[in-house]
Design brief:
With 112 residues, the chain is mainly alpha-helical. It has three helices and two strands. Helices cover 65% and strands 5% of the residues. It starts with a helix and ends with a helix.
């Protein structure tokens, strides 16, 4: 009963991509504001080539792809774990959940 594995994975990946996109847009707005403030502050001093400061399209594209890839990669493992079969979850007589340790949890802890 409930959603199937593929639907759960698709939902979690969709949420992750929306969050990655929102973070990317917020970062882009912050970059534009930061470049504008930097250019205004530097124009009052003798900073050479301050008029050439800007956001490069190639770097912006690479950063956008990196943000999306990061969103997919870091949500794919938990999505696959969550979307797995429910047979690995057992309960004792009182209804407390007895879980086997996830294979991914030690890797996530080691990566920190």
């Amino acid at each position: 009963m409930g959603a199937g594995r593929l639907r759960l994975i698709r939902q979690l990946l969709t949420e992750s991509l929306v969050l990655a996109l929102a973070g990317g847009i917020a970062g882009l707005l912050l970059a534009y504001v930061g470049v504008d403030l930097l250019a205004r502050a530097a124009s009052t001093t003798a900073v050479p080539r301050v008029d050439e400061v800007g956001i490069d399209g190639t770097v912006l594209g690479f950063t956008a792809l990196l943000a999306l890839a990061t969103g997919v990669i870091f949500d794919l493992a938990p999505a696959l774990e969550t979307g797995g079969s429910q047979s690995h979850q057992r309960t004792d007589g009182a209804g407390a959940r007895l879980e086997q340790q996830s294979r991914i949890e030690p890797m996530l802890g080691d990566s920190q």
